[in-house]
Amino acid sequence: MLSLVVGRLVAMVSTLLVSSFVVFAALYVVPGDPVTYLSGGRAQSPEALAAVRSQYHLDDPLLTRYGRWLGGIARGDLGTSLVYREDVTTLIGPRSLTTVLLVGYASAIIVVFGAGLGVHAALRGGWPGGAISVGTTLLLAVPSFLTAIVLISVFAVQLGWFPVFGSGSGIADRLYHLTLPAVALALAAVGVVGRIARAATGAELQSEHVLTAHARGIPPGQILRRHVLRNAAIPITTVSGLIVASLIAGSAVIERAFALDGLGSYLIDAVSARDFPVVQGICLVLVAVFVCVNTLVDLLYGVLDPRVARGAELT
Amino acid sequence: MSVLARFAAVPPPRWARPPSRMDGAAWLAAAVLGGLAAVALLAPWIAPHDPNSVDLSAAYRGPSPTHLLGTDDSGRDLLSRLIVGSRTSLLGPLLVTVAAATAGTAVAVGAAWAGGRLDSVVARALDVALAFPALLLAIGAVVLFGTGFVAPVAALAVAYVPYVARLVRGAAVRERRLAYIEATTALGFSGFATCRRHLLPNVAALVLAQATICFGYSMVDLAAVNFLGLGLQPPDADWGVMVAAGQFSILRGHPQQSLYAGLLILVTVAAFTILGDRLTAVDRSSAG
Fold it and tell me: Mapping DSSP to helix (H, G, I), strand (E, B) and coil, where does residue B255 land?
């Protein structure tokens, strides 16, 4: 298990380094002088341009600047917004809470309904199983912004059960405001996880070790818990983890549709305003979370499937 | 009824069943896509009205013989806008898919053929590239190169390369070990000729299946970029742009514009998903 953990952490750190370099260096591979972007593209005096040059250390080699940038991040300094003239960390801190709540809420929906429906479909078979597998195939194709506008149109505008926009205040009110966005973000993923859960559970039910367990007279409930679901949990966890990680980037669309003040919608604002330090900061945070969630899923494998941990020790 | 008997009633999972071929749903999906492609090609000739002709006195009209699907907030004909919008909405994902499939296959076959260090470096690089969400890359490209049609399409093409390459590399590595490749090499054919004439045709079905699935995903991603206001800009008629532009009409109780455009995206993506699903199954059966 220890070598698995070490191997995965090394892979995670190297992925983080590569992707952070991409996030950092992207600004400098674009044709043209970065000074024009960083000074907002307005014509300025040579002195002002020189000041921008020295502020961003543009005369240093790229790797030196990257090292300085990384050092700043280690101290929690992501730079200064070109638009608001404030620390990027201060700007994105409060907004990340909305995104964390939204993604967490959506993940809970995905795991409970996706895995629940899939396992249910596999155990029941017959028309409920068939209906669920057709339904989940259709759900796969639904873009989240379409779900969002249908939910807004039906439940917020016509029925008035939920607020149309905004994040609310206080934890209960926030969750109430986030219900429609979380459903919109989760719906397609429920389809994916449901399909995987149904296939995985179905395959386990057919497997020989389950038949053997029945032959040995082990109570059905115990077979389901210890022999079927534990094995089926492996592919379900993988797919759920990958999907939760992809929700982090996908939340931008939902935050925009519901006018939530999360990281994603702030990223879009910063892109429109060409506020590079903010774009870099948010991209870095999103990619870092994405990579960390993926690593976490890999480690969960080791817990769920002892063979993985043992295999890592052998190599 | 014993638990076992209930379990036995479960149909085996798809991959355990005999290989499926093109069934009714797949033919329907292919027909829908063919129809949409025809509409996109003929758009300027079959659109009943000018998609951009504004008539504020005719805003939010219901369906009528002149406006079959009604009008939007500026009195523009919705049907015409949907028809003309099919062009960019389908062209974008097509470019992404063709570029990603071509580049991805080239990288994968090249790496698998070279083998050794180069192959493992490429494999690791593909894993790292997959760690970057496609939508985020498209957003990043917009901040660097500006909004419009080209930047998001180019960024998504790059982002989808690993999705094709990883799968094809696996197949190409398996294929390379087979006897017929050894035979062509022994006959003195160059590596390039062997790849092009023998290896490539054998992974082509897999590339096609994966490209079909990528088309659906890239369509959703591109529509999302347009929806976020980072791609094509209003008044361009594009399905993603129309979904976004119709948002404030929803609050006035006129969800038609957003709804119709969104449904067209949904139908197209669903058709590609179904078709890709069946093509993968056919490919598995022919691969034995």
Answer: coil
* pTM tops 0.90: no
Q: Decide if B142 and A271 are in contact by the 8 Å CB cutoff.
A: yes
B220 touches chain A (CB under 8 A): yes
Asked if A246's CB is within 8 angstroms of B255's CB, the reply is no
The whole-angstrom distance between residue B79's C-alpha and the CA centroid of its chain comes to 23
B132 at interface of A, judged by CB pairs closer than 8 A: yes
How far A138 CA sits from the closest chain B CA (Å)? 7
Token code pair at residue B253: 């109780």
Q: Is the peptide bond before B235 cis (omega within 30 degrees of 0)?
A: yes
Nearest to B108 by CA among B214, B218, B181, B204: B204
Alpha-carbon distance of B225 to B231, in angstroms, equals 6
What pLDDT does A108 receive? 92
Distance separating alpha carbons of residues A110 and A151, to the nearest angstrom: 17
Start-to-end Cα distance in chain B:
38
Extents of the domains making up chain A: 89-272
Residues A106-157 have pLDDT tens digits of 999 998 988 888 888 887 766 766 777 677 777 777 888 888 888 888 888 7
Q: Report residue A58 as tokens.
A: 């543009």
Structure-block tokens of residue B163: 């999705």
Instruction: Specify the CATH architecture of the domain A89-272.
Output: Orthogonal Bundle (1.10)
Q: What is the pLDDT of residue A308?
A: 67
Nearest alpha carbon to residue A89 among A78, A99, A102, A98: A78
State residue B153's pLDDT score: 92
Q: Which residues of A touch B11 (CB under 8 A)?
A: 125, 129, 202
DSSP string, B52-120: T---GGGTT----SSSTT-B-TT--BHHHHHHHHHHHHHHHHHHHHHHHHHHHHHHHHHHHHH-HHHHH
- b/e A46-65 (16+ beta carbons within 10 angstroms → b): eeebeebbeebebeeeeeeb
Phi, psi at residue B89, to the nearest 5°?
-65, -35
- For residue A157, the SS3 value is helix
- Phi and psi dihedrals of B11, rounded to 5? -65, 145
Which of A123, A146, A229 best tests the B interface by mutation, with the highest count of B CBs <10 A? A146
Interface predicted TM-score (ipTM): 0.77
The verdict on A262 touching B (C-beta cutoff 8 Å) is no
Phi, psi (deg, nearest 5) at residue B71: -125, 165
